[in-house]
Design goal:
This protein has helices at 3-20, 24-31, 38-71, 76-109, 117-125. It is an all-alpha fold. Helix 1 runs antiparallel to helix 4 and helix 2 packs across helix 3. The protein starts with a helix and ends in a 5-residue tail after the last helix.
């Protein structure tokens, strides 16, 4: 294995790891100011963007569904329905976030780039350059 091959394997590994560590590795790579690897910088930014948006969305959906559940506690028949709705949203959205992070990690490790169109569109409206 040559030096270039090793460097490429290192880039693939760290870019995929950035999605699996809730963006922490991505933050470290961006703070380290990695300019020689555009691929690594791309995935570091995308992992930070992904987790910066996904975790607050998960919390917001969980709070809203839990609020609906709390407001229906005096109605026994509806209470059970909203309890399961809250559990499905809480667990389901969290599960989806993790599965999608594994998917992004897989794409990063195989050398593919995946844009997060909705998140990037929101950031561009606020003037953030990616």
């Amino acid at each position: 294995m040559g030096i270039n091959n090793f460097k490429r394997e290192e880039e693939l590994f760290f870019s995929s790891l950035s999605y699996l560590t809730i963006g922490i590795i991505g933050i470290f790579m961006l703070v380290a100011d990695i300019k020689d690897s555009k691929y690594l910088e791309f995935h570091a930014k995308r992992s930070v963007i992904y987790w910066t948006f996904s975790i607050p969305l998960w919390i917001i959906f969980s709070i809203i569904s839990h609020y609906i559940y709390i407001k229906t506690t005096n109605l026994p028949s509806i209470n059970i329905i909203f309890y399961y709705v809250w559990k499905i949203i809480f667990v389901g959205f969290g599960f989806f976030m993790i599965i999608y992070a594994f998917y992004l990690s897989y794409l990063a490790y195989t050398g593919k780039k995946k844009n997060l169109y909705l998140y990037e569109k929101i950031l561009k409206k606020f003037g953030v350059k990616l």
